[in-house]
Specification:
Elements (H helix, E strand, L loop, with lengths): L1 H13 L5 H10 L14 H8 L2 H9 L15 H6 L7 H9 L17 H8 L2 H8 L4 H13 L4 H20 L7
Helix pairs in contact: 1-3, 3-4, 6-8, 7-8, 8-10, 9-10
Length: 182
């Protein structure tokens, strides 16, 4: 079964238009395990968000109960894969993952260099990602993440970029009317 799942994933990477019927065939008809570790220890959900397939990710999450906070051998989660997609980071996928009731945006892997998703959002340069994450965390947590990032020497060149993007997003959020002001 693992080989079938692996072959299917290879097929997904080669095609530009995934087919939902293939997804149902693999996990419903054949009964493949949605948490099978394939392709460098990643789950099918990690691979679907990495290629930018929102509908496939939604089906795995809500119909086949894929684990939203699963980690690969490096400690990366589906959310981090969505923020750092090898194809094109997708706001709808990030929104889908962040709206899941079990998502843990504060999860870190076992290695020191695994950053908070806010860090990856800043590195992506996508303001929409930063806005979504900032709306979910407190100002104290934001400052903590900035300090954590500055201690990581591998990312020194990105600190200023991250700081500017966070300031810009926070400023835009402060200018937005609050629901009780309307």
């Amino acid at each position: 079964m693992e080989q079938i799942a692996s072959d299917w994933v290879s097929h997904l990477y080669r095609t530009s238009t995934p087919d939902i019927s293939d997804l149902y065939f693999l996990f419903d008809t054949l009964g493949a395990d949605v948490e099978t570790r394939i392709y460098n220890g990643r789950t099918p959900l990690m691979l679907l968000v990495d290629i930018g397939w929102t509908e496939g990710a939604r089906i795995l999450l809500y119909e086949f109960n894929a684990i939203i906070n699963a980690q690969d051998p490096l400690g990366l989660t589906p959310l981090v894969y969505a923020l750092t997609s090898s194809r094109q980071p997708s706001l709808p996928i990030v929104e889908l993952l962040l709206s899941h009731p079990d998502v843990n945006i504060h999860m870190r892997g076992p290695r020191f260099l695994i950053q908070h998703p806010l860090h990856y959002a800043c590195l992506s340069g996508e303001e929409g990602f930063v806005h979504l994450l900032l709306a979910m965390i407190t100002e104290k947590e934001i400052l903590k993440e900035i300090l954590f990032t500055t201690k990581s020497t591998c990312y020194q060149e990105n600190i200023e970029k991250s700081r500017i993007l966070i300031q810009k997003a926070l400023s835009a959020m402060q200018k937005r009317p609050r629901p009780d002001d309307l």
